[in-house]
Specification:
Mean pLDDT: 81
Number of strands: 0
CATH class: Mainly Alpha
Number of domains: 1
Helix content: over 70%
Number of helices: 7
CATH architecture: Up-down Bundle
Largest sheet: none
CATH topology: Ferritin
CATH superfamily: TspO/MBR protein
Radius of gyration: 17 Å
Order of helices and strands: HHHHHHH
Shape: elongated
Low-confidence stretches: none
Amino acid sequence: MQLQGPVFVGVPLLGPILICMLIHQPSSRCEDERKLPWCPPHKVILLVWVTIYSVMGYASYLVWKELGGGFRWPLALPLGLYSFQLALSWTFLVLFLAADSPGLALLDLLLLYGLVASLVFIWQPINKLAALLLLPYLAWLTVTTAITYRLWRDSLCPTYQP
């Protein structure tokens, strides 16, 4: 891995780092996650997100390298969609942690899920390993979507909580 490799791995981590630095007091909704018996602890969530962002960055590096590197036209669709989903992923963090808006966060996650699934199909002919590296991301988005949905539902109907 040349110098570009660590850059591709590190860039996805910049968003969460900046968001955490800017958010002085996270939403109280984060504490609500503990009410869900199947929700992982906060440290596990943090570890999984850091791992997924790093793996996602490495996968994008593989695609970039496979298509010849640089900033050429063949990279526009695969890495353009990747950049868009990365921005959506960072937006989810803002909506969920800072804006205290589980409904918008859920909508963001649904769009993100579709984009990541599209990336798997687009990246598969380019680099199979890169596409496979996105599958744990899809699995984690499923868990995150379930948690966010539950928090959104409970915020709409607080008396319906089991």
